[in-house]
Amino acid sequence: MKSSLTQSHPKGPMAASLAPAQVEKPEGIAKIGLLGASGYSGLEFLRLAKRHPGLQVVCLGVREAARRDLAEFFPGGLTGASGPGGAPGLQVIEPEELLAEAANGVIDTIVSALPHGVCKQLLAAMPEWERGIGPRIVDLSGDHRDGAGGFVYGLPELFRNEVRPAHRIANPGCYATAAILALAPAAEAGWLSGPVTVSAISGVTGAGRAATLHTSFAEANENASYYRAGGDHAHIPEIERALGQANLSVAFTPQLVPMNRGILLTAVAPLRQGKSAAKVRELYEGRYASEPFVRVLTSGQWPSTREVRGSNRCDLSVQVQHQGGTLVGLAAIDNLVKGAAGQAMQNLNCMLGWLETTGLPVEATPW
Amino acid sequence: MKSSLTQSHPKGPMAASLAPAQVEKPEGIAKIGLLGASGYSGLEFLRLAKRHPGLQVVCLGVREAARRDLAEFFPGGLTGASGPGGAPGLQVIEPEELLAEAANGVIDTIVSALPHGVCKQLLAAMPEWERGIGPRIVDLSGDHRDGAGGFVYGLPELFRNEVRPAHRIANPGCYATAAILALAPAAEAGWLSGPVTVSAISGVTGAGRAATLHTSFAEANENASYYRAGGDHAHIPEIERALGQANLSVAFTPQLVPMNRGILLTAVAPLRQGKSAAKVRELYEGRYASEPFVRVLTSGQWPSTREVRGSNRCDLSVQVQHQGGTLVGLAAIDNLVKGAAGQAMQNLNCMLGWLETTGLPVEATPW
Amino acid sequence: MKSSLTQSHPKGPMAASLAPAQVEKPEGIAKIGLLGASGYSGLEFLRLAKRHPGLQVVCLGVREAARRDLAEFFPGGLTGASGPGGAPGLQVIEPEELLAEAANGVIDTIVSALPHGVCKQLLAAMPEWERGIGPRIVDLSGDHRDGAGGFVYGLPELFRNEVRPAHRIANPGCYATAAILALAPAAEAGWLSGPVTVSAISGVTGAGRAATLHTSFAEANENASYYRAGGDHAHIPEIERALGQANLSVAFTPQLVPMNRGILLTAVAPLRQGKSAAKVRELYEGRYASEPFVRVLTSGQWPSTREVRGSNRCDLSVQVQHQGGTLVGLAAIDNLVKGAAGQAMQNLNCMLGWLETTGLPVEATPW
Amino acid sequence: MKSSLTQSHPKGPMAASLAPAQVEKPEGIAKIGLLGASGYSGLEFLRLAKRHPGLQVVCLGVREAARRDLAEFFPGGLTGASGPGGAPGLQVIEPEELLAEAANGVIDTIVSALPHGVCKQLLAAMPEWERGIGPRIVDLSGDHRDGAGGFVYGLPELFRNEVRPAHRIANPGCYATAAILALAPAAEAGWLSGPVTVSAISGVTGAGRAATLHTSFAEANENASYYRAGGDHAHIPEIERALGQANLSVAFTPQLVPMNRGILLTAVAPLRQGKSAAKVRELYEGRYASEPFVRVLTSGQWPSTREVRGSNRCDLSVQVQHQGGTLVGLAAIDNLVKGAAGQAMQNLNCMLGWLETTGLPVEATPW
Q: What residues in chain D have per-residue pLDDT under 50?
């Protein structure tokens, strides 16, 4: 694999082999403080972390925690506190208190699932951490995806070699993850000649957990709707940056559909020279052959969100339209797993030296 | 409006004025035999026809009617038979018997909502009808959209002048209706320079009423899936034909999402010269200004299926991406109304001389 | 029909014949001010009123109307304002202003779909109206179901003779409507010997339109939940009162399920003497024989919300369990129609002298 | 705890301590043949088994396996075969072949998730197995819940001591599991004086995976419906038997609601003497204090299916209505876990000497 994209964004070859830095059981347990634990991505990380042998969530940071009905925010015994015969519940504290716990060394890793803008603001109070001291940080928000503050863009399939030594990771956006994986092989190979048009549908957890009229059940049920179509969606520069050298202009049309989880994304781009469908599929299969979380579907199969529900997998299908003139990449991910909490754990596995698949479901829970 | 497209498909100017041929109450009542009445489109036509002052559904044609549990197929008192204190129910007969009723003059109009292939086969037994004798026919299937058998393509917004005098109408497909309305103004104006890529999502009624594993509740719920993506979908030639002279190659990526009704469609095409968003919107607003069933949304508004649920309206939004190089047309319709039964009634209104909106809901039933 | 219940609540025989007071076209149009127009029941009334030849909604009262995005609250062109080529939109004003319009005679009828507590508070400023002057009022909230302020309990199937001459109507609650219709024939006949246990499920529009976490899509989807089970639900006294003389204690277990519309209700009560299923069905069929909006299903059929979706019908099925010792009444209604806006219109038809079915759908829109 | 129920059904004290027979890692791995693997319960068992250190699913029995599109039946990489970089897939064979594999000793345990009637029929060909030789069997169907063929009724919370030494287990029905757990403490204590009325709602996976019109998406979506209400539902004798000595007549009203998973059940029964809510809750809390999979909710909390989604837990809430005269037990389970595959694994844990919670999720996956 030629690494033509690597200059534009973090550095180094993309399709780094999985083997060298990984062992099955690194020493030590990462002690995690989870910021924004009451949102969907935060809860998903909490759920996944319980399956991981090397990650211990020690405390949860929730804004105005004292004012909230935590049982409503943490259903299903998710904190451990309300489970039958369960372990004593996790401590729920204010985000600032959680940062103090990190400063005190009670936790060594911060996973932040706070809304956009909040993590950056919190970290502004800890400028010394920027010099590589302080806790490991994985930020799921869009705050640091431009590389600000020494954050590395954490899409392991493209930037694994930068992620491994990193101390701070900007976890990619859900739409961007799907779009980049759907386009990267063709972009890296220099096959794309022009502007990219992305159309995508997302389940409602993608809109966050704040109660709004637009995401109320009776409004969102039996309704498919565009939102901010054609506008300056934050995911656009993220995609353009990650596909770097290809220098592609990206337009994006997101849609909300009545389901909880899942993204289905259609990326369309002109192919530099007419390529056959077989040729394009061969390129993709080769590029992702050793990736545990990317599956390139065979001809006649297409992605569906059910096939990746609860899984950290991205399913891809590549089509060629208009007599080889147009590439259509189809992708499905679970927005809360590969699009958020699962990818955060995949990044932590890279950083901590665990096998990249540790604790992460490859198989789906279709229903 | 220049009618550059009109040579390729039926003839005549497209944006014909609504006024001349229409009166509020033409004489007489059309006596309708409804073929395929047990499917979703058939039932929707039955439901709408009860609100229309000039259409009387006289009998229903259902294959193997005698073998079926009609109460399961006609819920909610839809035939009238099971309604409380209701009128005596409609007669349910075999399709061939319904054709005989037409031959006998008991009915003068056939609306066929049979699956693709069946209507054509039935009509093969009535070759004399092809010479303009026999009943008025509106065929909702794809059997006659190529103009075979003297059928006129019934998209009134483009071909109103051909529809009015027609005796046989091929009702457009649901996806095609949305795609054509989303692209026609730009195509007619000669603004599109290259291949069109259409991505669309549909509610599950769009897949018909046959019980299949794929459309079972537990499989389709919480699932968004592509189907036949990149393949030779029957809607493609239909769109290419209707956009005629523009000579555009169309590719199509349909998706199924967990809702009953609705299509949300994204049509992307290169603009011949960079056009501003305002310029494009002006074109569309002008083109559809007098159309009762097309609404061009203002900037900052986007279509949603909820806004057209139960309505015969098509909501459109036009975007310009990549510095004016790409047109993105967004459309929402109810696949059972403007995409099927409603458009069939709109065509009948044209043919019979009723105001085109007679019996047709413009407002949505959002929930 | 013995009218044993009639002393306890409004007066007069229950199963009054439909004929006398009704003509097909009374003179005049009722000019309606619709309070709480932005909620689900309010919008449903607005939608239904457009089909009624004698009701004209003149203005809409919405609290803090000026601060709201009315397009979000009135989707689908519901006010007329945003419809394509539509009539000028309805005026949206503050509730107090709407009362002033009534005082000025601009409107002669108030339909209030405000939340519980608000209508009563507003009317407190208009004490003179209590003496029968002022506008006709139909209050959909629970504020006046105890008969306060001279309001008559508007369940026409039981209290038609009280409703017709009434000037103020308390529209029954959705659960209460289903429960009362499921039990009334047995209660009136004196067949019930002991406490009644009601278990019911409701679609999410039943919880109102305020945005809450509990009714957010991702929380309510794929979730069935009890709420306030066993508590003092406001519907309980309403049911006990309407079943009056039977002197039954009622307990109630409401549940929320992931759909927009519909109530399915199971009412269980001990039968005084063992009755056969056939005997009980005969009682119910006789009691409701002339009711246009009640359908007693035959043996082997059971209610479903789909069969009444969008309809003003109540479907009933009566079962006998435990060797004739227990009556189980099953009911389905659309909570927004027979459970709210449709019943309000039914009451207005009674009050204004229209045929009781005018403007009201009997048939369902199952999808 | 008085064990008044123990004579009627299997024998022995019910609330047997969890400790004696269980160790954390018994020797050996059970080699499982999974019959009916393509249904929802079968697939759920397959999914759960992958998390269990002592259960190895060796082969899958699917009727007419060769004729089917296995990718459609096993989505999400569930067989391992289609997973990216996955292990070689599991062998899919005919049920009879699977029995032969058991006879040959290739597998030592059969888990059967076949439809009702099929397992019994298959086993009729293996009469010698009835004498305790042959494979361990857990049958998820209703075929052996009456104790036929030496099967023990496998509800560990009531019959743990019978389950542990058993060789053949009849896994309880989903509705019966919820109903029995909701009533057992009161029934065992002799507090119930009369007939029991059960009303329950279930997600659509409860209806099996065969494609039918009734369970098609567009029919089941936005629809709550009764089915076989008041009839002789197979679950009734099962509940009556398990609650044995209490000698209660049970009536049952099942309902289908538009969600994939989950049962919410309301059990109503007259209390022998007026009991306070506190007293009843104390009884239940004591009875289930050491049960890892039963959670008695505190006052003011009610079960919801979301709280048990994907979990083997049963959430219970007990209410007292009509001045202490009526017990209302509310229960929530995941029909595919505690109602089917999870309980099968719980039974296997009992039989094999594993900690009863091994491999079984207590926490929910709410979304």
A: 1-20, 80-88
C315 contacts in chain D (CB < 8 Å): none
**Structural tokens at position A270:** 């002109």
Indicate the length of chain D as a whole number: 367
Catalytic residue selected from C59, C174, C314, C350: C174
Whether C181 has a pLDDT exceeding 90, the answer reads yes
Answer whether residue B310 shows pLDDT above 80.
yes
| Subunit contact D230:C321, Cβ cutoff 8 A | yes
B-chain CB neighbours of A224 within 8 Å are: 201, 203, 257, 259, 262, 264, 304-305, 332
Query: How far is A271 from D117, CA to CA, in rounded Å?
Result: 57
Residue of D nearest to C202 (CA): D224
Q: At A237, which helix (H) or strand (E)?
A: helix A235-242
In the predicted model, what is the mean pLDDT of chain B?
88
Give the predicted TM-score (pTM) of the model: 0.92
Chain C CB contacts of D323 below 8 Å: 249
| Whole-number pLDDT of residue B75 | 78
Each residue's pLDDT tens digit, A337-348: 999 999 999 999
The percentage of residues in chain B with a pLDDT greater than 90, rounded to a whole number, is 72
Which stretches of chain A sit within 8 Å of chain C by CB? 40, 72-73, 203-205, 209, 211-222, 258-260
DSSP-based three-state secondary structure for D236: helix
Helix (H) or strand (E) holding A330: strand A326-333
Q: Give the span between the Cα atoms of A98 and A62, in whole angstroms.
A: 9
How far apart, in whole angstroms, are the C-alpha atoms of residue D328 and residue D307? 20
- Tracing tokens 């989870």 back to the chain, one arrives at A34
pLDDT digit string, tens, across residues D258-272: 999 999 999 999 999
Each residue's pLDDT tens digit, B227-238: 876 666 778 889
Distance from A219 to chain B by nearest Cα, in Å? Answer: 7
Q: For D114, which DSSP code?
A: P
Q: Point out the residue among D214, D218, D260 whose CB comes nearest to the CB of B222.
A: D260
Give me the numbers of helices (H) and strands (E) for chain B, helices first please. 10, 14
Contact across the interface for C216 and A203, Cβ inside 8 Å: no
Global ipTM: 0.90
Q: How many CB atoms lie within 10 A of CB A208?
A: 16
How far does A190 lie from chain C, in Å, by closest CA? Answer: 40
Please provide the DSSP assignment of C251-311 as one string.
EEEEEE-SSSS-EEEEEEEEBSS---HHHHHHHHHHHTTT-TTEEEPPTT---BGGGGTT-
Tell me the per-residue pLDDT of C207-244, one tens digit each, with 9 for 90 and over: 999 999 999 999 999 999 998 766 667 788 899 999 98
Query: How high is the pLDDT of residue D69?
Result: 73
**Do the beta carbons of residue A74 and residue A57 sit within 8 Å?**
no
Among all residues of B, which ones are annotated catalytic?
174
> Strand, helix or coil at B66?
helix
Q: Under an 8 A CB cutoff, do D301 and A362 touch?
A: no
Partner-chain contact D306 A76, CB within 8 Å = yes
Chain D residues within an 8 Å CB radius of C330: 226, 229, 253
pLDDT band (50, 70, 90) for residue B194: confident
Residue of D40, D260, D294 with shortest CB distance to A84? D294
- Determine the Cα–Cα distance for residues C209 and D136; give it in Å rounded to an integer: 54
Q: What is the pLDDT of residue A2?
A: 38
**Residue D25 and residue D327: Cα distance in Å, rounded?**
42
Residue B302 with chain A: CB contacts under 8 Å: 225-227, 229
The whole-angstrom separation of Cα B77 and Cα B83 is 4
Residue from the list C76, C290, C364 with its beta carbon closest to the beta carbon of B364: C76
* The predicted structure's pLDDT at residue D73: 81
Separation CA B250–CA D367 (nearest Å):
38
Count of alpha carbons within 13 Å of D347, Cβ hemisphere only?
33
What is the distance between the alpha carbons of residues C340 and D76, in angstroms, rounded to a whole number? 44
